Amino acid sequence: METPAKTALGGSLISALALGGMVVVGVTAGVVADPGAPPARAATGLTTFQDCASLQRWYVDHTLDQVGPYGWAGRIWPERMPGYATALGEDTAVAQDGGVANGPTGTNTQESGVDEPDVAKTDGRLVVQLTDSRRVVITDVAGPAPRRLADWRLPDASRADGLLLVGHHVIVSSGRVVAMAGGARDSKMIAPGGGGGSELVDLDISDPAHPVLDSRTSWTGSVLSLRQYDDTVRLVTSTGRPELPFVHPERGRLTPKQALRRNREIVRNSNVGGWLPAVDSNPVVGCSDVYHPTTWPRSETGADTGPDTVAVATFRPGAVDRATAVAVTGAGGEVYSSTDRLYVTSADWGRPRAQLHAFALEGDRTAYVASGSVAGEIRDRWSLDEHDGHLRVAVSWPDRLGHTRDNGIVVLDERDGRLEQVGELRGLGVDEEIQSVRWFDDLAVLVTFRQMDPLYTIDLADPTRPRRLGELKIPGFSAYLHPIGDGLLLGLGTDATTAGQSRGAQAGVFDLADPARTQQVGKVTFGRDSALGAGDDPHAFTWLPAPRVAITALQHWEAGPFASEMVLLRVSTSGAVTTEPLPSPGGSQPRALPLEDGRIALVGDRVEVVRVT
Which of 572, 569, 554 has the alpha carbon at shortest distance from 612? Predict the structure, then answer.
């Protein structure tokens, strides 16, 4: 989808991932919602269950083979697929030359107009940050020196993993901490699946020196994603198999076979409400509002994405208890959202196939619109992009041993409730792994690596016929790509020998003026045992268009695995790149948040304000 942040060579990467083998449910927190007319035509890829009995049978049929004599056993369905860390108001600022700046709360986001959670946010006057995953610290950065205003501790049973700053509300997502087996006081972990659940804390900071808890809600399952659209927030959770009163084998009373038979009966007799997502223990929906997929019948594809249930809840800060939602059965994976579509993905376990579901977003409503699948593997959420209604996906195709055989681009369109493939390109990085992707309106840049770094440019002007334009082979690879204007692309990653041996971190600049003849026009390296934070977490990257400066974290392993400093990369219009040191704010996840008048808040164990010109 074209946005102000996606220009010919200045687009923000749109990524999404989606999820398959699912049941869709329209809900309001605690009550059955009236779904009304969806914001797009009704999808034909799903059909409704006739009643609660048929819905309950669906769950039972998909989990009986996971029951053992001691309860749930067999396959373990992960709460989340591997990938990068997840994601207000106005559109992300974009320089006229095509360089993509950070969003209005200071975060480097994938999509203009869609903010993502991070460990630190700013509104230009305040910095709000998570410290030790347990405290929300508020600092005034409007004056001549940073001044701490508040240090608010989260409830004892919470450990935060990200926050949003929505007006005068701070939304914090967290998992609930539970004691590990053995009951040791200091032995704790984040509870997975439906057992421990997740929480949202809504903190009112109208008076930033005295934060007030507006609400604290408990959600079954784990948080997959949190996204913000102006004053609307969407939460995506994945709820696992329910806790049931299983029996165990006992000498003289139950043999393993008897216990297995009894446990299967317990699953068959379980209450359907225990399988579906809940908020503060309230039931979700009536069974007649539940949908299930017919896009890929299991008998045809063998599709099996697990017994979890993913919910997409929509709410506004200060009214979390009035959230509405849709829910789908299936193991939740990565999540991407543009301003009008949200995608969730899950792998088809047992075969290289990814299931994709699309949801239409309109104001504070969310509706299912289409489903589809890709006969390959999707590396992470940065592998997807939407433009002009076309979903473009970077895909890897493995061999029989699971090693990548081939890479390419697949294009899917929404047609009558289905995501149907309309275009495909193969043959990129044969026997290599995808390392990064960046999308523009009619162009994609894809980097693969094994020993040499092929950087491919792909023409997407005709979505039915993606076409390779050029290929640049150089040592090393770029793990993160960022448009910096003037037809230049900054790549942050790893330097390497021609044999593929790492030589530490590097930053390279690529000239895309002629995509068929891409050239590297600048490069700087940081020595062995070094790494740039943006390579693993794009939120650890900041681009300032006016001074043409990038800021990211730099780690040197000889100084300790959690020791980070901040480095400034100054890039000329010709692509030459030089480095300058910045003060280190400490901490394992430092951030650089743009303020006004060339001021930057460096946020970590402390907040420092510097001026960059």
Answer: 569
pLDDT band at residue 348 under the 50/70/90 scheme:
confident
pTM: 0.85
Q: Provide the 10 A C-beta neighbour count for residue 33.
A: 19
Tracing tokens 């993993």 back to the chain, one arrives at 161
Query: Which residue carries 């900054």 as its tokens?
Result: 490
CB-based contacts of 438: which residues, under 8 Å, 6+ apart?
11, 13, 444, 445, 481, 482, 483, 489
| Helix H or strand E segment including 310 | strand 309-315
How far, in Å, CA of 118 to CA of 85, rounded? 9
Count CB atoms within 10 A of the CB of residue 254.
16
Whether 379 contacts 402, CB under 8 Å: no
Full DSSP string of 521-557: EEEEE--TTEEEGGGT-GGGEEEETTTTEEEEEEEEG
Written as six digits, the tokens of 369 are 């619109």
The residue among 25, 28, 31 whose CA lies nearest residue 327 is 25
Measured CA to CA, the distance from residue 500 to residue 460 in angstroms comes to 30
Contacts for 483 with CB less than 8 Å, ≥ 6 apart: 9, 10, 11, 12, 98, 99, 100, 438, 440, 489, 490
Beta bridge partners of 475: 452
* Domain spans of the chain, in order of start: 476-613
Q: How many CB atoms lie within 10 A of CB 21?
A: 27
Q: Cα dist. 236→227, 539, 575 in Å? A: 9, 20, 40
Residues 466 and 587: their CA atoms lie apart, in Å, by: 43
pLDDT digits (tens, 9 = 90+) for 512-565: 999 999 999 999 999 998 999 999 999 999 999 999 999 999 988 775 555 678
- Which three-class secondary structure state does DSSP give residue 421? strand
Distance spanning both ends of the chain, measured CA to CA: 34
User: 199 by DSSP, 3-state: which?
Assistant: strand
pLDDT, tens digit, 9 for 90 and up, residues 298-331: 433 344 556 777 788 999 999 998 888 888 777 7
Three-state SS for 245?
coil
The order of strands in the sheet holding 126-131 is 120-122, 126-131, 135-140, 147-153
